[in-house]
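Lecture notes, continued. The same structure-token format from the folding unit now serves as the input rather than the output. Read the line below as a description of shape only.
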């Protein structure tokens, strides 16, 4: 769907690579510019120390379907190559620290003078201006400053960050969305533009519900029990069972009570008007009815009565769940260095077909010669640049 789109990516960590991978999965020709020898940061670090035969899983999970150009942007010749590369591109994506590409003469102001139709998308922690522009944008830090960590967990406990890099990932989705919107605008008007995504805005957007409730006088507060949020009515939350945990979602207490044969212990809590203000009491009354039951049995019972519920899975249980299996979300690749690696596929389904794996996550500079040849460099020019350490 995007096979006529060319993208130059100055990206690292997760935000930029994940955003470009969404677009590359859809057919865009993405050239990732990396430092010769060392490459992007995500090649040298991986969460949980996950290196597969020495290859970073962090790099492989968000850099498929793109090409790698090893280029020293600190040299005049390297910057010249980058300018020529951009001249043939539709989009530039930048998630280096704000100001880095500007200082190299590769920022929006410099490039758009010759390319008014260029789409220039940048992503950072706090944006290119403002009091925090100089600070690093990292997921935990953004969960902290945005209120997300403090809103998660229970009263009396420390703030609880999410178990995944949710801000990075949401910002990556917004980055891809912004690029697509700008390309659509250009197709109608011929005008390029600068698109800016900040992790701080992404973190706020993730909290659209509770922040708006808070701003408008709603009751939003951390619970004592694992009730799942600071603003949902009972029985919303996580309850222990004999062999695990059960999640109960948005279901009237009258329905819950009927499922258990209308026990006396729940009779005082059937009025929906009290289900928010007395949700802690309701949790205490309901929890014993679940504690001595097997998770699978109670899920079957409650679903038979129309109760919104789910077992709480760890990753192994999640992979065995029939709904997950039905999605077939896993992508197994054979990498020339790492060997067999399992990744997650592109997350959107299209009636026109499934996005394909066209290119494995590349080695550093794997496509340098091809990219330079496409830009008109002769083989002797490429050899000279290579000998000079430019590429």
């Amino acid at each position: 769907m995007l096979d006529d789109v060319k993208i130059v990516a100055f990206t690292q960590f997760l935000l930029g690579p994940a955003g470009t991978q969404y677009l590359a999965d859809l057919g865009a020709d993405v050239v990732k510019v990396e430092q010769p020898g060392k490459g992007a940061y995500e090649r040298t670090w991986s969460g949980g120390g996950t290196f597969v035969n020495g290859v970073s899983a962090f790099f492989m999970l968000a850099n498929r379907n793109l090409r790698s150009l090893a280029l020293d942007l600190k040299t005049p010749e390297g910057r010249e190559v980058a300018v020529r590369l951009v001249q043939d591109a539709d989009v530039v994506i930048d998630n280096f620290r704000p100001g880095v590409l500007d200082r190299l003469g590769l920022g929006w102001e410099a490039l758009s003078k010759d390319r008014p139709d260029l789409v220039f998308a940048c992503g950072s922690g706090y944006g290119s201006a403002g009091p925090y522009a100089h600070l690093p944008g990292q997921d935990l830090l953004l969960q902290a400053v945005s209120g997300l960590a403090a809103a998660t967990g229970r009263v009396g406990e420390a703030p609880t960050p999410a178990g995944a890099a949710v801000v990075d990932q949401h910002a990556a989705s917004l980055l891809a969305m912004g690029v697509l919107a700008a390309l659509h605008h250009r197709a109608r008007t011929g005008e390029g533009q600068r698109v800016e995504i900040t992790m701080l805005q992404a973190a706020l957007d993730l909290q659209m519900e509770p922040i708006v409730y808070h701003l408008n006088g709603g009751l939003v507060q951390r619970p004592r029990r694992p009730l799942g949020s600071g603003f949902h009515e009972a029985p919303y939350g996580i309850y222990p069972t004999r062999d695990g945990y059960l999640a109960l979602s948005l279901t009237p207490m009258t329905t819950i009570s009927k499922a258990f044969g209308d026990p006396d212990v729940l009779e005082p809590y059937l009025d929906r008007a009290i289900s928010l203000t007395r949700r802690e009491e309701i949790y205490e009354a309901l929890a014993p009815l679940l504690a001595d039951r097997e998770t699978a049995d109670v899920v079957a019972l409650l679903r038979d009565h129309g109760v919104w519920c789910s077992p709480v899975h760890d990753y192994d249980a999640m992979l065995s769940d029939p709904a997950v299996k039905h999605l077939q979300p896993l992508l197994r690749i054979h990498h020339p260095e790492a060997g067999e690696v399992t990744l997650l596929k592109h997350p959107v389904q299209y009636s026109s077909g499934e996005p394909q794996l066209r290119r494995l996550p590349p080695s550093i500079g794997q496509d340098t010669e091809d990219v330079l040849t496409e830009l008109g460099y002769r083989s002797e020019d490429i050899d000279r640049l290579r000998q000079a350490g430019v590429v």
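Point for the exam: The CA atoms of residues 64 and 361 lie 4 Å apart.
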